[in-house]
Structures are given as C-alpha cells and as structure tokens.
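Q: My labmate handed me this sequence with no annotations at all. I'd like to see what the chain might look like in three dimensions before we decide whether it's worth expressing. Could you predict it?
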Amino acid sequence: METPPPPGPSSPPSTPVKHARLRKLAAAALGVLIIATVLFLVGRTLGRKPVGALEERATAAEVARDSAATNARLLEALALTYRSALDLDERNFGTANANLQAAVAALEAAGGAGVDTAALARVKARARGMNVAVAANLEAQRRDVLALADALNALLPAPLSRPAPAPAEPVPSTPTR
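A: Here is what I predict for the chain of 177 residues:
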C-alpha cells in the first residue's frame, strides 16, 4: 500500500485547520472592534470637555454683547437728554422735545442686560411722560430733563457713569496791569 502524498501548497487545507484560522481571524476582528470602541469612547469623553468650555465662553460673550448694546442705548439716551437740556437753554423748544422723544426711543430699544430692569422700567415710564412745552420760565422743565439725565446716569455701570460735576464757583477777577 501506498501512503498518500503529503499535502502540498496547492492542495486545500483540511477542514479543522480552516476552522481554526477562521476562529483566530474572528477573535482578532472582535479584539480590534473592542479596542476601537474603547478608543472612540475615551476620545469622545475627552473631546467633550473643550466643547463645554467653549459653550460657556460663548454664553459669556453673548451676555457681554447684550450688556454693551444696552449700555450703548443708555449712553445714546443720556446724550440726547443732555442735548435736550441745552436746547431748552437756547429756547429751541421743538428741538428739545424732538431730542427728548429720540431719547425715549433709545430707551425703548435698550434691553435689560446688565441693568436693573425695574429701575430701567421706571426711567422709561418717567421719560415717556415728559414733554417740553413753550414756557417763559424754563427752570422746572430744565430741572426735570436734568433729573432724567441723572436717572439715566445712575443706570450705567461704574466705568461709564460719571458723577455730576459740581457747580462752578465764580473765579475772582484779577486786576490786569
């Protein structure tokens, strides 16, 4: 009897060897899949930390933007109110009233970011109720307009608000030689 020839490179592997290779390949693929899943989860966890910090910075920037917009409107209303007081001094009643109404419009456009909203609402109501009329004695109207300016100034944050200047004392005249 002849012994069968040994399997050569061209002969197909036997079935048990084929199954063993498939098991090793499946185990390797499963190992790679588990490692990839773990690495993905670790990367996602570590990658979420910067997103949270960026979201916080974006929120802070939006609040700062809204606060700056409110301050800009308040400064605009303050400038228009002072301009109205100057127009009263010059007896330009129509222009003074127009500037006062423009100040009211600027106040209405002001949001409440960074400002006491109750105080802002009171100043808005006060400004809406003001009207400059032709009068011989301007002192009461001027006082009301400047009181509104003081109220607006009080709404502004400390770096933007300025204390009202002290009344100027008369400078003694010096004799010229």
